[in-house]
Structure to design on (261 residues):
């Protein structure tokens, strides 16, 4: 007997995710829009027998979502899979930076399992934040004729000091504000002393309908061991201030492929 398919989607958690998470347009159009008038989703997980009721406003989960994320100690860089079980009930499975499903336990159990070496295969998280991710490196990048033609975007030199990157890492995930992702090649220029992304940058720009002169505030997320994320900052006061600050400086401080010195 065939097992019925349960529609699902995933969302990487970006800065500001506590305030709400947007449902991918393709999933919303196919499985939600016009199918129900319910404005409340019920979220379940393997971490608890509790069911969380979360309000859907437009295409965004808002009221009640912060309680769910706080209870599950979700952090920037985590990946959350929503599986629709029917009648607006969703089973939520969170994955950590290691791309392993997060296992929930108590802090003293975390210490015992870590000491015994049994915690290598899974993310284990309790009520204390365990993430070693760095996610506070933001910079401004401009879409230019040269970096579009070369399919190459240089990160600022300051990115070399970020713990999110290492020279052995060969890939990076680009994530837009809607949570959609693109895989890009990550390289390091020994002569220029800078990281840059190649394959994937052009597709990111095409799929997001970028024009020359468009600006992105990117947030670099990673721990230096797993594939780093380069996330477009959501509309927020912090990102707006960063954008304003960078626009007031000379163009040499903006990431592009036109300058590598």
């Amino acid at each position: 007997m065939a097992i019925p398919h349960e529609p699902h989607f995933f969302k990487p958690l970006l800065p500001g995710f506590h305030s709400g998470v947007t449902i991918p347009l393709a999933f919303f159009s196919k499985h939600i829009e016009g199918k129900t008038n319910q404005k409340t989703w019920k979220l379940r997980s393997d971490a608890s027998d509790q069911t969380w009721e979360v309000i859907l406003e437009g295409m965004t989960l808002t009221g009640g979502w912060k309680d769910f994320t706080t209870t599950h100690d979700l952090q920037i860089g985590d990946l959350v899979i929503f599986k629709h079980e029917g009648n607006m009930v969703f089973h939520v499975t969170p994955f950590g930076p290691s791309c392993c499903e997060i296992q929930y336990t108590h802090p003293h159990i975390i210490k015992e399992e870590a000491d015994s070496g049994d915690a290598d295969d899974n993310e284990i998280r309790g009520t204390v934040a365990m993430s070693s991710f760095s996610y506070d490196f933001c910079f401004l990048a401009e879409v230019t004729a040269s970096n579009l033609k070369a399919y190459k975007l240089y990160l600022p030199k300051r990115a070399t000091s970020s713990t999110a990157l290492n020279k052995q890492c060969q890939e990076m995930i680009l994530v837009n504000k809607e949570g959609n992702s693109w895989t890009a090649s990550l390289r390091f220029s020994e002569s220029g002393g800078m990281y840059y992304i190649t394959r994937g940058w052009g597709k990111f720009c095409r799929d997001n309908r970028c024009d020359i002169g468009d600006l992105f505030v990117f947030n670099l997320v990673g721990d230096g061991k797993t594939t780093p994320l380069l996330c477009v900052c959501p509309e927020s006061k912090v990102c707006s201030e960063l954008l304003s600050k960078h626009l007031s400086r000379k163009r040499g401080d903006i990431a592009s492929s036109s300058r590598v010195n």
Observations:
- The chain has six helices and 16 strands.
- Helices lie at 25-32, 65-71, 107-116, 145-150, 201-207, 237-247.
- The radius of gyration is 20 Å.
- The first strand starts at residue 8 and ends at 12.
